[in-house]
Amino acid sequence: MNKVEAKFDTNQVVISIKDLKKSFGTLDVLTGINIDIFKGENLAVLGRSGTGKSVLIKIIVGLLKPDSGVVKVLGQEVDKLDKKALQALRLKIGFSFQSSALYDSMTVRKNLEFPLTRNRRNLTKKEIDDAVEAVLDDVGLPQTIDQMPSELSGGQRKRIGIARTLILKPEIMLYDEPTSGLDPITCIEINNLIVEVQERYNTSSIIITHDLTCAKETSNRVAVMLDGKFFITGSFDEVFRSNNTDIKAFHDYNFINENEIIRE
């Protein structure tokens, strides 16, 4: 599959962030984030370690409160929601952890059943079975249904982690370093899966990554974070045509040439 080609709707904003600031003591992490993410859009967020990318994600899902600014997700101001409303909103947001975050003591089937039985208590066993089988088909791993996480490769665990998120049919996907620690061939497979998820589930996504190939292949837009703000946003080609030394250094660190990639 080639680079993402899905069209997104600029008339529908699913995440709106205005002048977002967050500090920890004397450390200013986010110093004025401004961006709108649209229905059906994949946005890749790039930046060096420690620039606040993970803090941004935690504020979006209500795990951290901003010092100032406004974050609206699906029209709701996140830090103003009570516990019940925040939980309801989180059910519409899928989060793919860097570590996959599978339960080691559960089979793949049980890992996928868990969010359904916890959040959709009225489902029959057949409905649960059908949902598990369908989402495993969607990530290309139906044969793993009765395996333990320890029996899976890193790429398979990543796919099952995404499947467990997709089983609740989220409107928004948040990917945290989806290709970290994977070999180049598996990285291509995960990139393709992210695009397939966007198209099949009509999700809007934020993809936190250091991997420029991942950003290029999965995103409609790229946002580069510098000094706690989005320094530049645009298509991958627009962003990396910049003559800014920080942008060029970030590009050159990842790419030796078009076909050779350095991965962390």
Structure description:
This protein has a domain at 105-169. The chain contains nine helices and twelve strands. It has helices at residues 53-60, 83-90, 108-119, 125-138, 154-166, 184-201, 212-218, 236-239, 245-254; strands spanning 9-24, 27-39, 42-46, 68-73, 76-77, 93-96, 172-176, 204-208, 221-226, 229-234, 255-257, 260-261. α3 packs parallel to α5 and α5 packs parallel to α6. The model is unreliable at 256-264 (pLDDT under 50).
Top keywords for this entry?
264 residues; alpha/beta; four-stranded antiparallel beta sheet; disordered C terminus
Brief overview, please?
The protein is an alpha/beta fold and 264 residues long.
Summarize the amount of helix as a percent range.
25-40%
In round numbers, the mean pLDDT is 90
Strand content: 25-35%
Order of strands across the widest beta sheet? 6-7-8-3-9-10
Kindly provide the radius of gyration, computed on alpha-carbon positions and rounded to a whole number of angstroms. Answer: 18 Å
Give the strand tally. Answer: 12
Low-confidence stretches: 256-264
Q: What's the story with the biggest beta sheet?
A: 6 strands, mixed
The rough form would be described as: globular
- What is the string of SSEs from the N terminus onward? EEEHEEHEHHHEHEHEEHHEE
Cα(first) to Cα(last) distance is 24 Å
List the total number of helices.
9
Global structural class: alpha/beta
